Structures are given as structure tokens and as C-alpha cells.
Amino acid sequence: MEKSTNRRVLPFEWGIECLIEGAGGEDPERLLGDYVENSIQASERFYDPHANGHVGDHAGFLLTGGELTFQSAIPTPYRENNVARFRYFPAPAAHGAVLVLPQWNADERSHVTLCRVIQATGISALRMTLPYHGARRPSHLERSDYMISPNIGRTIQAVRQALLDLRRAIDWLSSRGYRQFGIAGTSIGSCIAFLAYCHEPRLQVAVCNHVSGYFADAVWTGITTRHVREGIETHLELEALRRYWSVISPLTFAPRLRNDHRRRILLIAARYDLSFLPHLSQQIMDACRKQKTAHDVAWLPCGHYTSGAFPFNFYEGYLIARYLRSHIDR
Q: Which residue has the higher pLDDT, 58 or 166?
């Protein structure tokens, strides 16, 4: 998540129409509760871009000047957001590739250096433009407010859209001959990366940088998202928000990694993080230990923003690239 001064408080909305076609006139709390419960129980389909007739296997991919585009698996009211976008950093003769997911409100330069470092190790990188970011951001927005907002349903939809799009990007990489895959995400990107790792068996390694077990708790307690909380707290308490956003929370799906020793995941957290509080990071680390998931942990002596400043950014980039390289063959 980013540091800025142009945050604004958006109005609270249930956003049922973002999740259930034609919904309206009924109890939104019941509808949303049922939707979330059913989606968790059927998460294999919920997070599968090929389920429910979303997309064909390899249809619509276009690589132009280093940018991969295709139609997003989830249509939204905003045409800009309906085109999935990735920047491609191919390494010569590489058999492995890594999906890179930046933080909330990242600009187009964010994580490009990390992609080039990964590329230099002999592994290709594919940097994702998150929903409502960069060229996917509707023209009336100054920030990527629609990715995380007081619109409960749209936030669920945006996270799901990101996951479906990145799984389609793996399809594209597979069609180009890649056989080994990893993922690295930061902040909101780490949440999406963890969900993808739980549902995408082709991912053999993941790095989750700035992790939190509960999506709602990170929004509720983080200094970066105070304006989002302001739009929610007069309508919902934290416990209810946690329940509704459980379908996009890593802790919900950590049991899917039980006794998973074929793959490896690195969880990175900052000891002085005021956006993703350390105890929230500890929760997902404890869950991985309880599930006997093959994982590693790294605590950095910095905060959320200072992790992006020298010397922490250099060390963090080195840590991520080395971990990915050690678990993906060139």
C-alpha cells in the first residue's frame, strides 16, 4: 500500500450487484452472507477462470511491445478495467517464470526493478497491473480506490478478478513453453498471491511480502486504510466485515496447504509496520506452522513504507529473488 495525501472517504455500499447478477430488493446482509459462505465452500470454482464459462483456455492473448493483454475473466462496468494487463520480462532460454504483483495504488514503475533482477537470474517475470490500477483505472478516479473500498462486494470482486486474471496469465506462459512457476506479491499483492498459491497447483513457490491473515483486519487497523474504515464503521463492525471478507482472506484457505511439502512459501513482514500490524502477520505464520506447510519466515527491522527505501529495499529485493531462484530451475 502506498503513502499519499489524496485519500477520500467513499460511501458505504453492499455491492451485491458486483457479485450476483440481477440481485436487488432483498436483504443485502443475507445475500452477501450466503454468497460468501457458498463461495468459500466452492472456492475451487470461485477462483477458477475456466469455470462458469468465463473464458476459453488460450483465447484472446495479445503480446505487443512487451505488454500482454487479454479480456478479463470478470466484466465490470468500467471498460478500462476489463482488459487484463501484464508487462513481460523474458529471460533467454528460461523454463521458469514468476508472476509479480505490486502493492495497492502502485504506479507503472513499481516492482519493475524487482522484475529485472528476477530476469537477471535467468527466470522470466510477468508484472501484473492490478484491477483499477494504471491503464485499468477508470478516468474519473485519481487513485485506485475501487480495489479496496467501503463497497464490500466490489472489493471481493476486484480481488477475485485479479486472481482469475493471473491464473489465465499462467495459461499464457504455459502456452509459451514455461513449465515452472512462482509468484511474488506485496501488500494487497501478497494477499492475492497467497490465495493463488492455495488454489493454483502449478505454482511451486510463492513470496508474500507484508502479509496479513485477515483482509478486514488489515483494512480496519492500518494507517493506510483509515479512510476506507471511515466509510465502513458506521454500518459494520469489524467482526461482520471479517466474515464478509473471509472469502478473500488468506487465513480462510490456509488449511488447503496442510502437509504441503512439494512446494515452498516465504512470508515476509516488517516489525514496525503500521499498515499491516505485526500480530496480523504472525497469525498467518502461525497458521502455516499449524498446517505443517513448507514455509519460511523473514522479519525486517523496518516499517511498511521504509521497506521500500534504502537499504531495506535492496535487501528485500535480494531476499525475494534469491528465494525464487532457489526453488525454480532455469
A: 166
